[in-house]
Design brief:
Layout lengths: L1 E4 L3 E5 L5 H9 L1 H4 L9 H10 L5 H6 L2 E7 L5 E9 L5 E7 L8 H16 L4 E7 L3 H10 L1 E8 L4 E9 H7 L1
Antiparallel strand pairs: 1-2, 2-3, 3-4, 4-5, 6-8, 7-8
Helix pairs in contact: 1-3, 5-6
Length: 175
């Protein structure tokens, strides 16, 4: 099911055929190290995959959800669009891409699309994003759209995270 689309991308719910790319996105050290994310067992990855299969639109507003990112015209999943809830119970966005799709502007395009979706479709008042300060690519992207509000030590991931946020009225003024 389509969630939203951008100029080049389609964000939709996961389907059974996306399983191998999902496993790659949660296990490839080149992808998970910059986040950073602890290495998951394959059983944990599959549990997450099955939990997010065929999500409903109503779920996006109230629960953590993972959707697939696809290039228009390409049936192969290239990344994940993460609809999250942070430790302060605020809406949070996230994304990750398979290595072959880095450096093409897809994360910037996805971030913009997710903010539009959060504010215009889900009617959320504020969106946040947490990023490892050493993940310079994501820091650069988030600086384009959101303002940094604090840095903190993330015990789970053993890194310094920076929290970004943007409120709906600020987003709408930028448009």
């Amino acid at each position: 099911m389509k969630i939203f689309e951008t100029e080049r991308l389609l964000i939709k719910s996961l389907e059974a055929t996306d399983q191998n790319n999902f496993i790659e996105l949660l296990s490839d050290p080149r992808i998970i190290t910059p986040i950073p994310q602890p290495k998951l067992l394959e059983s944990q990855i599959l549990e997450r995959f099955h939990k997010n299969l065929n999500i409903k639109l109503s779920t996006l507003k109230n629960e953590k959800c993972v959707c697939g990112i696809f290039e228009k015209g390409n049936p192969e999943m290239i990344g994940l669009s993460l609809f999250l809830i942070n430790d302060d119970n605020e809406k949070e966005l996230g994304y990750r891409f398979r290595v072959n799709y880095w450096g093409k502007g897809y994360a910037t395009e996805t971030t913009k699309g997710m903010l539009n979706y959060y504010f215009n479709e889900l009617n959320i008042d504020k969106v946040t994003a947490d990023v490892n300060t050493e993940n310079t690519a994501s820091v650069k992207i988030l600086n384009k759209f959101m303002k940094p509000v604090r840095e903190f030590f993330n015990e789970r991931d053993n890194c310094i995270d920076r929290r970004y946020e943007i409120e709906k009225n600020n987003w709408l003024e930028r448009r």
